[in-house]
Amino acid sequence: MHEVSLLENVREILQEHALTQEFTQVKKITLEIGSLSCVEPEALRFGFSAVMKGSLAEGAELNLTQLEAQGQCASCQSMVIMQHHYDACSVCEHPFVTVVQGNEMRIKDLVVI
Q1: 61-67, strands of its sheet edge to edge
Q2: What's the pLDDT at 100?
Q3: Which end of the chain is more exposed for a tag (fewer CB within 10 A), N or C?
Q4: What is the pTM of this model?
Q5: Mean per-residue pLDDT of the chain
Q6: Is 109 exposed, middle or buried (0-12, 13-18, 19+ CB in 10 A)?
Q7: Which CATH number applies to 3-112: 3.30.2320.80, 2.70.70.10, 2.60.120.920, 3.30.420.40?
Q8: 15-50 pLDDT, tens digit each
Q9: CA distances for 99 relative to 33, 47, 65, 86, angstroms
Q10: Could you tell me the residue ranges of all domains in the chain?
């Protein structure tokens, strides 16, 4: 369950930003999860309170949003929506499309005090 290590990284990022931006508590956090990222939202929800226990995000509300995957065709250069890593271009059917969005997980929003 790599989601626990992802949440530990989020906790570390929050702690670093708390020092530089001078906040002491996270009330709400929104994580944006790419549809091709292989991150399980339910596993994040399940582990969130345990990983954040004792940190400045203990008791914070967790919101998860999905980020649509997009790719750029190597042939026609079109930006296309992707459902899988190896989708062909939906415009010209070329087999090589480079994923440009949808593999990532990032902190989108924070509500802090």
Answers
A1: 61-67, 26-34, 105-112
A2: 98
A3: C
A4: 0.89
A5: 97
A6: exposed
A7: 3.30.2320.80
A8: 999 999 999 999 999 999 999 999 999 999 999 999
A9: 15, 28, 19, 9
A10: 3-112
